[in-house]
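INSTRUCTION: Work out how this chain folds

Fields: amino acid sequence; protein backbone structure tokens

Chain under study, with its fold:
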Amino acid sequence: MSVQCATPPVLSAITAIVSDADQHELSCDGEIVDMADLRQVWAHIPDPRDRRGRRHSLGLLLALVQAAIVSGATSYAAIRHWVARAPREVLAQLGARQDRRTGHYQAPHPDTVCRTIAQVNAASVDAAYAAHRASQLADLYDDPDELIPMTVDGKTQRGTAHGEAPARHRLGALLAEDGIMVATLDVGTKSNEITAFAPLLDQIPHVKNVVISADMLHCQRKHAHYLHRRGAFYLFPVGGNQPGLFDQLDALAWKDTPIEWTTYDRGHGRTEIRTIQVRPAPPGTRFPHVKQVFLLERHVYDLHWKPLSSVAVLGVTNLTATHAGPRRLAELVRGEWSIENKDHYVRDVALGEDRCRVRTASAPSILATMRSYAIGALRLLNHTNIAEGTRWARDDFMHPLIALGLTM
């Protein structure tokens, strides 16, 4: 698919990425961009600086910041420190300028790096990273009929609150089983997660066989229509924002419906039992394209079987019983909660997002995108403990480049 790379940057070729998930390249003004190569993705993010006086490419600046974050940099001060100490072999690998007389590679000033990052359009960075991750989906899921669990949820960057200015909020789509963020998007102060849902998923060109789960807020008819139109599946819990649907499901004969799958988990000083009951969607169900409805219950006890909490969740899905039986539905529902501990918690604890006080222009959004990408890059290297992964990355300046696939 050939597109124009003109402004505005949000509608650049990066956001109009290929519609075929098996295709890793796109054409932009006659130039082939390999979306699987992070360097080429960075190179096509619009540079906000005047052409006159540019000494270092935007791709180099983005690469240095991303490498620093993989190494566990949690603030501008830590990023500046990493950039200032980057050795010549790292600069050479990332494409830094080389002095013709001395042959030395020239590092950009750390202040230049941070100042420029704040000027870059955050939406173009989000689209670029989403295009890159989307190009990898075919490699992560090589079976065209395999269901791909993906969960959508928002996160507030608490450190960006200042005075009367509210904290910034972002929406993300995470591969639930792998813990890899695919797409992210800013939620404007005059908007909300509901209106950002479709634009977020529009960044992913191919969502056939993707099962989108989200919290009750996103149990919306327009979301169901949108996903059905794109060939995706939905799995939504039903709550008070859909009172008619909730009452209809709550009135079903669940006492006569057998429990078809049960899980027991013991750890952290408690025992957790989950059960699921599934029924075909009754005629006249007040939700588009629904095929099955379910009741999931979770009971938590201490180690002496004293009840601690009980939760019951009603839900709807357009997955048929052939696509997903009770056991698979239970797994998909549980995956919806994975974004909290596989991304949000890690960004706050291992990468210090809530402690970060960077508030200038686009910088908080871009740093959040890079944190999520760093987590995914380390997970693809089988680092299940991200804090340990960042320590590994700090052991050698080349390790972050290995994690980012920049050593070839």
Observations:
- The mean pLDDT is 86.
- The longest helix spans residues 122-140.
- Residues 2-122+371-403 form one domain.
- The chain has two domains: 2-122+371-403, 149-349.
